[in-house]
Design goal:
- Pathway: Amino-acid biosynthesis; L-lysine biosynthesis via AAA pathway; L-lysine from L-alpha-aminoadipate (Thermus route): step 4/5.
- The protein is an alpha/beta fold.
- The chain has 14 helices and 17 strands.
């Protein structure tokens, strides 16, 4: 390989600067581990921001991509392909029967963008309701229903009107969702907002109130889907079915893929050509998606998340540090909230213990390990956290 330091420097100097770059060059990944250019091994609890649920270099996804790349990589949705139909059939077979129309895109923010447009087309209404601390993406539409002011304020005005309510506040929900509301959009677990799970009461009330007011319920499962929370999809914990479900990240097994899945009557409300995407539904991503869904179903990785997640959270709670405020999460989507800034501890976990984690707000260390992670690796993560906090 060309001198890796030169390549790292090229990325840092030629990049726009939007991202704060780490001082390492990741060259390879397998399962729940990655390696840098010097051969150092890391336990990856970033997981590509939730993309790597099935593990880095998942062999079944790799093989599917190889086969499809040799056959057909690009084809617009006006021209049907076998793999697109296979993906639609595989995905909808895992969902409630009313979620039976699929709009494929390339990412999570695009899936939410599509969901917002379908909601307006179907209801004829303009208003959206979203949650404080919620995160739906950074394109202009999905940014409109993202709470964090630092993301929103430089780009105002955005899509309006949008009303933000406190998460898990049923009374605020009742006041906000009205006859002018096109849709309520919520994450079953707020990821960027600090790894905060919804209460059952809140999501069930969201379903009842939207039905009552003729608004749609959009559940953003871009991070919580594909087994992350201990079920195939997080809405299964709550006994509800949304009108539109958005998925991305892990659904492509590492290949860019997102979808908005909806009821038939919502799909039919969009005028012909009312929305579109050049790369969405391309055969390569569809092949990766089929392989990812079949691997998840065959291995039942959500059961690993349901077992390892509570154990991992309990071990983190046992760390005797006065710096810890709370450990919370659902499945293997875990947040450790501190009483001070998290960034210095995230840096120490990387540099001193070769454990990669990420932030969820200024004081929360977020863990999104691949669901294939071994228990002994999670034990190493616990010991690393113990070392930097005590």
């Amino acid at each position: 390989m060309e001198d890796w330091r030169a390549l790292l420097e090229a990325e840092k100097t030629l990049d726009t600067g939007v991202y704060t770059k780490h001082d390492l060059l990741i060259v390879r990944g397998q399962g729940a581990k990655v390696w840098d250019a010097e051969g150092n091994e890391y336990i990856d609890c970033v997981g590509g921001y939730g993309v790597a649920n099935l593990g880095h270099g998942n062999p079944e996804v790799v093989e599917a991509v190889k086969r499809q790349a040799e056959t057909l990589m690009a084809m617009p949705q006006t021209l049907p392909t076998p793999m697109r139909g296979e993906f639609y059939r595989t995905l909808t077979a895992l969902l409630p029967p009313e979620l039976n129309r699929v709009f494929p895109v390339n990412s999570g923010t695009e899936a939410n963008e599509a969901a917002l447009k379908f909601a307006r087309a179907h209801t004829g209404r303009k208003k959206f309701v979203a949650a404080m601390r919620g995160f739906s993406g950074r394109t202009m539409g999905s940014l409109s229903v993202t709470w964090e002011p630092k993301y929103r304020e430089p780009f105002l005005p955005l899509v309006e009107p949008v009303e933000f309510i406190p998460y898990n506040d049923v009374e605020a929900l009742k006041r906000a969702v009205d006859e002018e509301t096109a849709a309520l959009i919520l994450e079953p677990v707020q990821g960027e907002g600090g790894v905060r799970p919804a209460t059952k009461e809140f999501l069930q009330a969201a379903r009842e109130i939207t039905w009552e007011k003729g608004a749609l319920l959009i559940l953003d499962e871009i991070q919580t889907g594909m087994g992350r929370t201990g079920r195939r999809f997080a809405f299964e914990h709550y006994g509800i079915v949304p009108d539109i479900l958005t998925l991305a990240k892990a659904i492509g097994g590492g290949v860019p893929l997102g979808v908005a899945v909806m009821r038939e009557e919502i799909a039919r409300s969009m005028p012909k050509g009312g929305h579109g995407t050049t790369f969405g539904g391309n055969p390569l991503a569809m092949a990766a998606g089929v392989a990812a869904l079949r691997y998840l179903e065959r291995t039942r990785l959500w059961e690993r998340a349901a077992e390892l997640g509570p154990w991992f959270m309990e071990k983190l709670r046992e760390i005797p540090s006065p710096k810890i405020r709370e450990v919370r999460g659902l499945g293997l989507m875990v947040g450790l909230e501190l009483k001070e800034k998290a960034a210095p501890y995230i840096a120490r976990l990387e540099k001193e213990h070769r454990v990669l984690t990420l932030q969820a707000g200024p004081t929360v260390i977020r863990f999104l390990p691949p669901l294939v992670i071994q228990k002994e690796d999670l034990e190493r993560v616990v010991e690393a956290v113990r070392a930097v906090l005590t």
